[in-house]
Amino acid sequence: MISFILNQRQLDIREKPGQNLLDFIRYQQDLTGTKIGCREGDCGACTVLEGRLRNNELVYRSIISCLTPLGNVHGKHIVTIEGLNLEQLSPVQENLLNHGATQCGFCTPGFVISLTGHTMSSQPSSTAAAIASVDGNICRCTGYKSIERAAISISHLLKDKDPERPLQWLVNNRFLPPYFAGIGKRLSGMAQERPPPGPAATLMGGGTDLMVQQPHNMARARLDLLFDKEELKDIRAADQQIIIGASATASDIMQSSLLQKHLPRIGKHFKRVSSEPIRNMGTLGGNIANASPIADLVIYFMVLGARLRLVNGQGERTLPLSSFFIDYKKTRIKKGEFIHSISLPLTGKPYLHNFEKVSKRTHLDIATVNSAMLIEVHEDQIVRCMAACGGVSPIPRLLKNPSAFLTGNRLTAANLRRAAEVLQTEIAPISDVRGSAQYKRLLARQLFMAHFLELFPGRFALNELIS
User: Which one, of 388, 390, 386, 383, lies nearest residue 408 by Cα?
Assistant: First the structure.
């Protein structure tokens, strides 16, 4: 049984948990305002809001319904464009209209949902945040400046939002229908966890890649959905380590105060991982288990010395994240095991760490090449250096040779140029739809140098590193 609130109605249904939410909304509930676009999470036309109780607080996030397994909405409030209807246009809808931010209208429901989700954030609004809230939505005919102007106007309307009772303020100011005021109480009376599926079920985290690659298989499969397992979502410090649960989403990680303390650039870096709705859905464990050679979170945490905790019914084991991958889409996970968490060494000061990525789109795109670096420098001497690169071999690659070359050497432009040459001996990119092998080699070199330009501003002139 899957129980959730869809707009104003509570549904108790017996459906396959791997069926996607988009098809259920449109074909079984006749809510056709949620559009079918790419079915890959790229366009945002199927965006809906997901409300859930966390520590007795009702929290809303935007999600992509085409990649959401129906089982993941159990115990939650799902809001489609129809669920925002009032007797008059809301300020979000009104501003999109007044700024000419809609033309054919196909993408408009997704923009309304994303911008409304921004109004529901517990964080103060800003023009940058309002514009960023629609980074997962594509408009193919209007042009984005009118949408940006609408987002800016909406942000200005939120300057007086009550931070203590934001939902009630939004209801009072007709951003939301009145029924939202009672959703928290209704959800608290519902079971938040689904019964266990029993033995032989396939484990799945966020499913953002599986739902693209194998939607029909997932719709029929017997699944054990890990997305809402609270014991797998924890982010904490313990025993001189930072522990990140496998079901923590990219948004959970990005917004963690503990990780922000030790990785001050994490907010900037994770803006490049994907769009906001996908960050709200994609899990750390899923990104690792998918074993993509360009997995952003793998590259990001590999250089930090991350260790994987693998668990099965009989016990557990740990191994370095860098040694988890054997070959393309092949890992060291054994039958019956699942990824429980990763751990990072807890240091007394923030990591000197950087992440770079090149893709065809700034947001919501798979990397052509990505790269990360951790470095320690004392009195011009490189004490430690760890670099990693994705998209240049069949697996995410920890670059041992340039790291070893730099460790113990002075931080000079000449040494960095030599390290970039050493890097080329360790990678073997192939030509594919994202770029030629030669282009990827160039990107690997440029991103390697970009780490030093970012981490040591003013220390090197660009022409010193690329000459």
Answer: 383
